[in-house]
């Protein structure tokens, strides 16, 4: 009984892997055709690095949402 289940499980995993490979190839073909079409109008598809965060963590300057420290000489703070 367990051999039949593990055999069916292996078949299912192999089918999923084959389907994933086919979808990956199709995706690459679609991106290549999109890239060739975009190059005709001056654009290009480039890969992004998903390992990099979208916002730099070591930013300098005033954090968003905090008021500025001064407004200028002799001017009162905003109300």
Account of the 3D structure:
- With 79 residues, the protein is an all-alpha fold.
- The chain has a domain at 22-46.
- The protein has 1 helix and no strands.
- The radius of gyration is 27 Å and the shape is elongated.
- The model has no long low-confidence stretch (mean pLDDT 81).
Indicate the radius of gyration in whole angstroms: 27 Å
Mean pLDDT: 81
Approximately how much beta-strand content do the residues carry?
Answer: under 5%
Total number of helices: 1
Distance, first to last CA: 77 Å
The rough form would be described as elongated
The biggest sheet amounts to: none
Given as residue ranges, the uncertain stretches (5+ residues, pLDDT < 50) are none
User: What class would the helix/strand composition place it in?
Assistant: mainly alpha
- Total number of β-strand segments? 0
Helix content: 40-55%
What's the SSE pattern?
H
List the helices and strands and how they pair.
Elements: H1 2-40
List keywords for this structure.
mainly alpha; 1 helix; 0% strand; elongated
In short:
The protein has 79 residues and is mainly alpha-helical. It has one helix spanning 2-40.
């Amino acid at each position: 009984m367990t051999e039949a289940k593990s055999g069916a499980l292996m078949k299912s995993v192999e089918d999923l892997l084959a389907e994933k490979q086919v979808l990956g190839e199709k995706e690459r073909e679609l991106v290549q055709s999109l890239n060739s079409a975009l190059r005709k109008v001056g654009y290009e598809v480039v890969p992004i690095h998903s390992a990099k965060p979208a916002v730099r963590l070591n930013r300098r300057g005033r954090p968003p949402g905090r008021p500025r420290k001064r407004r200028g000489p002799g001017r009162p703070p905003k109300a």
